[in-house]
Amino acid sequence: MTIQEEILKKIKEYQKIIIHRHQSPDPDALGSQGGLAEILKASFPEKTILKAGGSVNDLGFLIHMDEVPKEEYEGALVIVTDTANAPRISGELYANGEKLIKIDHHPDDEPYGDLSWVNTGASSCSEIIYDFYDQFQSELTLTDEGARLLYAGIVGDTGRFMYPSTTPHTLQVASNLREYDFDAPLLNRQIAEMPLKVAKLSGYVLQNLEMDESGAARIVLPQSILLENDVLDSETSALIPLAGQIDNVVAWGLFVEQPEGNYRARLRSKGPVINTIAKKHNGGGHPLASGAKAVDLTEVDAMYQEIIEAVKEYN
């Protein structure tokens, strides 16, 4: 029996299924979570399907979470999408379910769950969820809303099909999803749009970009600048690609100071592997897109030096 068949078997066994995703969600986290929920609701209308997790920040146009109290987890199947390791799961109640399934596309460095389906060759977890539907079309139903969510996840995690993870299969899946009835141009605009206050902050980012001659770059956003512009850390994701738009930047990091004084790091690369750096600093992710944490500016400096070394070695 394949892992996909095992997962479908478990889904059929349980009357209540609660779906989680990772903290600080992006379109793929919400797209895979919500897309799977839509598929299961349409396919098994007699079952209770719930979406659990914390705030979706500025992605409310995509999805809204359900209120899931602790008692709902008794005898429930929990499925976690797009989450590499258990500490990143949004909503600690996930552990109160009877069985746990992991569906993901990140490197499986920290396995968890009773069943685990990890496909690192997929562009996104949303692509994996579509493949799950596609494999069992005779038993599963994909709705227009489900297609909208999965399409959003793929668009988000491929950078609008610009990233190397975009394969011919990815484009075929996106093409299939576009056959459904949803407003794709509107969805693309919603994903790309940013508040005016964040757009203004992009000027600060570009003016204060620090760049090494090798092609490594970093931007440090102190709390004072965030407060001055009334911008939350959760709203800074739109600033991550800015450095990569510069032709001779090869790899970079956006370091955002948190209210507690530590830093959230978003690392990106056009070639050098940077998830090995993230793993050294309480993080992880994909080879070219990862996240990490730094306790202070000293660790930020150390992480930046590691990016420089990675770029030099790559060059």
UniProtKB/TrEMBL annotation:
SUPFAM superfamilies membership: DHH phosphoesterases
Domain of life: Bacteria
Domain annotation DDH: ranges: 16-154
InterPro entries given in the database record: DDH_dom, DHH_sf, DHHA1_dom, Oligoribo/pAp-PDE_c-di-AMP_PDE
Record Gene3D superfamilies: 3.10.310.30, inorganic pyrophosphatase (n-terminal core)
GO molecular function: nucleic acid binding
Start and end residues of each DHHA1 domain: 244-313
Protein name (database record): DHH family phosphoesterase
Protein species of origin: Vagococcus fessus
